[in-house]
Each structure stands twice: as structure tokens, then as C-alpha cells.
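ugh ok fine here u go
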Amino acid sequence: MAAKFHPLVETKDRLFDHSSIEVKEGIAAEIGRPWGEICDDLFADGMEYHRLIKFDGFKDPRGLLAGYNIMWGKFKWRFTGRSI
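structure:
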């Protein structure tokens, strides 16, 4: 759908007359869904787009720091064979 509009740019100018925002809005209108939903579904398999389902968190900042230190120690031990 967007291939015929390439190259896409953030701001239109004399050389490039298709802004990515306008093209995305056009695709969303054609499909009948908001672009955010389309984008989420397109890239849901990419690790950076994985959705957090549940997070229990930590009791306090001290608990967060303790958890971080434990995970850092495990990481360091696994990849270097040495403790901190």
C-alpha cells in the first residue's frame, strides 16, 4: 500500500512529496483502523514491541536495587565465570 508513495519523509519538500504521517493516515483510513493498532499488529513479533501483560513490581526502591544487583551478578557469572 505504501510502496507507491516511497520515499517517505517526515516533512514534504520540493523533491519528496509524500510525508510518512499523511501516508499512514491514508492507509489507516483505507483499512478502517487507527494507525497505532495497525502498527502494533504489524510489529508484534519484534521483541521491542512485545506487550507487558502483568508486572507485580517491587515493594520499594531498595527491592528494585536488590533485584537488579542479583540479576547483574547472575549475568556476570554466566558470561565471565567470575563474580562481581
